[in-house]
Design brief:
The protein has about 350 residues and is an alpha+beta fold. The protein has helices at about 10-25, 40-45, 55-70, 75-80, 100-110, 120-125, 145-160, 200-205, 270-285, 330-350; strands spanning about 5, 30, 50, 85, 85-90, 115, 135-140, 145, 165, 170-175, 180, 185-190, 190-195, 215-225, 235, 240-245, 250-255, 300-305, 315-320, 320-325. The protein binds flavin-adenine dinucleotide. This is FAD-dependent oxidoreductase.
Length: about 350
């Protein structure tokens, strides 16, 4: 019986292992989750913004296929803690492919998406002082999920399906497909997939394996004591601001960072970035924290794995050894489709 090892207990590794259990019968799947009780991974920190539209055509196909699967499956929606807040993706101008991509999202998720100019978006109330010529892709059937909750639920499903779920870190992986757990006996596999997110590079480097161009970068957002209201989940490319409603009337708001090549795990928050987020939120959304509550703004920062393509996908390193990482701040919305594609490709490789 062929043996597959998936290394990494984040949303990428867990969803891939779940797909493998569903799609490859007669295969022994072993999932090595890392340290589940001290999670400092991207999946635990993720904002979970989920929509069908992305300006990059490949990412748009993955995001809309993932959203279509979520929309068609109430069980998956419950497992993922899906909240339908609507989504706005604001761009400085109409891109060359935008109209076609909007049509592609429309085909996969009907009655959801429309393209608005700045004037029509501003008339809806949430956004202000929009740059002339800017356009927005507005989705009704989109919002956010909890990658953390989905991963926890899928871990139960994987164990139920008879696959082995093994807690604890992997020390190294060899070119020959040998997996060496910390403090445990090594084991040989026909296929090894390293899905250890921001830790992937270091793990591969221990045995001189190439990493295919992976990098790490900090992502930081703030949780505010109240919300701007009405914006739903949004990305504003004209300022970089993104956000969504959070529990108890609060909001999650963020701006991109430029902190590259940092060690994996929880990251120190940058107070200057927190201040910038509040400045931009005031200008774009008219949001100001209530008087006396500015101290209740808290920052969350964690490290993510990036790849030049921006996509979570299966990448061969040497025969039988792959990575499945590189979500680049967006795998929460693409992981369902990306894991399906990856599992199919692994099934073909084992035939
Ligand atoms: C702050 C933040 C906000 C985000 N917001 C969004 C968003 O709004 N929408 C969206 O679509 N995406 C978002 N993302 C991106 C998305 O959450 C990530 O792409 C996704 O969670 C990455 O999952 P992963 O499984 O690749 O990595 P991780 O979640 O980092 O998981 C890697 C796992 O590997 C394990 N591991 C590490 N080393 C080893 C080892 N040696 N042996 C075994 N296991 C090991 C770790 O314990 C960990 O569980 C965000 C990311 C961050 C950091």
């Amino acid at each position: 019986m062929p043996r597959i090892a998936v290394i990494g207990g984040g949303i990428a590794g867990v969803t891939l292992a779940w797909r493998l259990c569903e799609s490859i019968r007669g295969t022994a799947v072993h999932l090595f989750t890392g340290e589940p009780y001290r999670r400092t991974d991207a999946s635990a920190a993720s904002g979970g913004l989920t929509r069908g539209f992305e300006p990059d055509p490949d990412l748009c196909m993955e995001a809309s296929a993932s959203l279509a699967e979520l929309q068609s499956d109430p069980v998956l929606r419950a497992w993922a803690g899906y909240r339908e807040t609507g989504s706005v993706y604001l761009m400085p101008a109409l891109g060359r492919d935008t109209a076609e991509l909007v049509d592609a999202v429309r085909r996969r998720v009907p009655d959801s998406v429309e393209l608005l100019d700045a004037e029509r978006l501003a008339a809806r109330g949430a956004f202000r002082d929009l740059p002339e010529g800017s356009v927005a892709v507005v989705e009704r059937r989109a919002g956010y999920v909890s990658p953390n909750a989905l991963r926890d639920r899928l871990l139960v499903e994987i164990a139920r399906s008879g696959a082995l779920v093994i807690d604890g870190r992997i020390e190294s992986v060899t070119r020959e497909g040998e997996v060496r757990p910390v403090g445990g006996p090594p084991a040989r596999f026909d296929v090894v997939v390293v899905a250890a997110g921001a830790w992937t590079r270091t793990l591969l480097a221990r045995t001189g394996l190439p990493d295919g161009g992976l990098r790490t970068k900090t992502i930081q957002y703030v949780l505010t004591p109240s919300g701007p209201g009405g914006a739903g989940a949004f990305v504003d490319e004209t300022t970089g601001l993104y956000g969504r409603p959070y529990a108890d009337g609060r909001a999650l708001l963020g701006l991109p960072t430029d902190r590259w090549d940092v060690p994996p795990g929880r990251a120190p928050a940058d107070p200057a970035l927190t201040a910038r987020v509040l400045d931009v939120a005031r200008a774009r959304l008219g949001y100001v924290p209530p008087a006396g509550k500015a101290a209740a703004v808290t920052a969350v920062a964690a490290v993510e794995c990036y790849h030049a393509t921006g996509a979570l996908s299966l990448r061969p390193l040497v025969p039988g050894v792959y990575t499945f990482t590189g979500g680049s701040g967006g795998a929460g919305k693409t992981v369902l489709a990306a894991s399906r594609t990856a599992a199919r490709s692994l099934a073909r490789s084992l035939r």
